[in-house]
Amino acid sequence: MEHMGVAPGRIHFSWISSAESTKFVEVVKEVTDAVKQLGPNTRFRKTDPTNSLAKVA
Amino acid sequence: MSSYIESIRSIAEKWLADGDVELVIGFRAGSMPLMNEPCLVRTPAGTAQLVWDSNCGINLANYITGRKEKIGIVAKGCDSRNIVNHIVENKISREQLKIIGVPCQGMIDRRKITAMVPGEILEVREEDTAVIVKGADFEETLAKADVLQQNCAVCIHRNPVIYDELAGELVAEQDGIDRYADVKAIEALAEEERWDYFEKLLAPCIRCYACRNACPLCYCPTCFVDESKPQWVGKSQDPIDVRTFHFLRAYHCAGRCTDCGACERACPVGINMRVFTKKLEKDCYDAFGWEAGLDPDVRPPLDTYRPGDPDAFIK
Amino acid sequence: MSNPYLPYPVRIDEVIDAVDDKSLKTFKFVFLNPDDEARFNHKAGQFAELSIPGYGEIPIGIASAPTEKGFVMFTVFRTGKVSAQLHSMQAGDIMGIRGPLGNWFPWEQLEGKNVVIIGGGFAFTTLRASIVYMLEPENRAKFKDIHVIYGARRPGLLLYRDELMAWEARDDINMHITVDGTDDPDWKYNVGFVPTITEQKAPQADDDTYAIICGPPVMIKFTQPVLDNLGYTHDHIIMSLENRMKCGIGMCGRCNIGKELVCKDGPVFTLEQLNLTPREY
Amino acid sequence: MKIIRIDKKEWNPGLTQARQSYRLVGPVADEAGDVAEFRTLDAEQMPDLAAADTVLSPKAIVYPQSEVMFEYSTDPGDEERNILKRPAKAYDACAVVGIRPYDAAAFTLVRKNFDTPDYRDPYWCDAYEACTFVGLAVNQPDSTDFSTSVDSGPFSEKGLDVLLVDTQDAYLAKVLTEKGEAFMTAADWQTAADASAEAAINDLQAAAEAAIQATVQYDRIKDLSILDLYNAPFWEDVGFACINCGTCTYVCPTCWCFDIQDEVRGKIGRRFKNWDTCMETQFTLHASGHNPRGDKVMRVRQRFMHKLKYFLDKYEDGLMCVGCGRCVRSCPVNIDIRKVCNTMNSYDPEACACPV
Fold first, then answer.
1. Would you state the pLDDT for residue C280?
2. Is B228 close to C80, i.e. CB distance below 8 A?
3. B100, B184, C243, D328: least surrounded by Cβ within 10 Å?
4. Using the beta-carbon criterion (under 8 Å), do B191 and A47 form an inter-chain contact?
5. Can you name the CATH fold of C241-281?
6. Contact between D84 and C242 using a beta-carbon 8 Å cutoff
7. Architecture of the C109-240 domain
8. pTM (two decimals)
């Protein structure tokens, strides 16, 4: 993904056991913080429908 | 080359006549220059149509999937590695196959050679290290090394890795080549440039899926792009859907791809999608010292765990 | 000419569980624009595309008869992406219907004839439309004897049970309801596969008797020899086919059997016609 | 018929003039120069007529690979929720410059499918009717070209409004229809060619037609029954190499099959018409899991039977093929429609039931 040009901070891997709830919370917080810092993703996003709803039937 | 053809025919003929195999998968002469057609031969007499030259780039391992018969198959280095993959992935057993190994000196890149001459190529003749091409108003002698498919130019497994009989003497393997120069060049780009590089690369894609279908690894009964419940990928020509197809397909080939070049060769619009699979091939080699399809008895890195496996990416 | 891909907007008026295992539901739709109902104007045997924005379209046989006014009705088996979504929709939801599409049972040709309807499982929808149409007081006199052989795996899987029972009670239609098997001690109808019941109950063939068959492939496979034995010629055996469809108007190219398109030249064919086409259905 | 001489010096100025009343579409080579395609030209851009033999046929001009049929709101608060509407799109006059004669002929075949007495596909038909086809004759046919044996040819006028013939320093333009006349007027090309023009065109045409060596025969196919051909023993051999990619169908100017798909982004949904291919397993897969064409050989057979038999029987107007040779060139495993057509044509169901 990074090779392809997706910003590195947007990809995280972690190994969390089902018992490690605190770690899960920490990692999620860390990831969301990191991604928020990067701002809105501009790549790897599908184009929004360009036309507003048309009035021709 | 002609000695290869004679051996292929006589081995295939014998196997069919003796009942060692029920059919032989090989190539027959194509209907146009620089093309041969994969074919299936069921009778000893039928082996007379088998041919071999530097236009046998299609990976024949693709044709053994799901067959129940005892199969004879013609295999160059990469085909044989993909046959090993099929064995490793339990798609077929070694006993169901008899392999005519063909030491290979590389396949011609049809797109490249066509671009090197001034008109349509109407006739091709191969000599040892040269390819002579003729058109309506030109004739040129080209060095074979200059017209090879790029994956062949950097191939270090030209000899078949498994076979029952050989169609010719083993050839010297290439050494001292940088197999991943193309990947390294992309790695050296900035993040944004990499994004743009792939965007441009995939712009002509028409999603015909020739790359997937030519690939001997892509044998899934239903590909993820065709799933409707859930639908993973949109079906229009949106560039993100196109890219999702290409990079996810590459992931599915991680640790399995032999860089046979079938995908690139099959592409009607000339996309070199090997730059995706090669990155993963390189990573597999760097991280695990792994090259796919060399030994039917070794499990691949993605289905084994070793205590020393690199895990720096896990937080 | 209007856009043939544009569905009529409809509102789901009623959703009814059609069988006891929730695999089939019956939907009654009302047209949002009253004029569309008149335009829809179908004949028994035709189908329509049910269109759910965001999900897609599915071709479904029209289960209501043209004589039933004020709504159109479909019974849908839950199987793919669109039908699963439809099953989760409720009365009041807005969606679309595109049709009517395809041909219909040859009603003009059937006038003055005996009609033997043979159906199995959930392929009874256009057959229901046909029965209701024929039983309509103004139509009943146009047809001679009507036989219906309809089977399901067990009683709970029979579609339109109330109507079946009501038809049983009438004397202008010969009902032969059957199930493959049941442990219900009160079951007072037939037990046995459709081909067997056909063999026992269907009238002998003559020039004035036509059979209409709809059902799963295995039922059709074993019923056809029975009809042959009873002397039905292949131009007197009428079948309705299903194939994967998208456009429903003969353009998208996938539902063909030979040069015939199931969506436009069909879905209704005589066995005589089918004998000349590849069995790609 | 009128023949106009367009000196090559008048070519670019004429096109610039025509732009005032037409959207121009023409062949454009990409940077690498190998995957040329037909597309709408930019304001200053001129068609690259040297690139007129495109890998993909120009069918996308009229029939884009992916086209929005309807848009709708999925917003629960919207009164118009789930009501489908065709997007507003202007079908203003468009001139397709440099289209090859066989590709223009292909549109006339495809029209039989989209413009029928019962239904009219408004997307295809509206786009088609807006086009004026200014064709470019093929002086040097490719070795895979077999257009002359399938009712087309390097100088065929079928489906064209103007036929341009390149005579080195000028184009000789045969003005074939009123639409063509209007375009010539808009480009201000009015110089009548002299008396020798017709002979010059005929000479080039004769040379081009003589250069086409590849042929197919289909005279016997119409007399063979569908089932005899369908059950013929050669299909396993024909279809073995096929990898079931959709290349042949996507590059083909006469393949028209499509899929309909819905997609939702945010609160706006769209229904698309996408090119589809009969090579794909999913194409005919029933929701039950049953697939009437589940085997790849059946799908290969479907493609050839559709083009070379079903279409022939249905419309009695030749094959669904214009002989452009694209599928022959693009097939990664060298399945050759010319060979298949000739095999079908020479099939004798009485003679032999043995595999080829």
1. 85
2. yes
3. B184
4. no
5. Dihydroorotate dehydrogenase B (pyrk subunit); domain 3 (2.10.240)
6. no
7. 3-Layer(aba) Sandwich (3.40)
8. 0.91
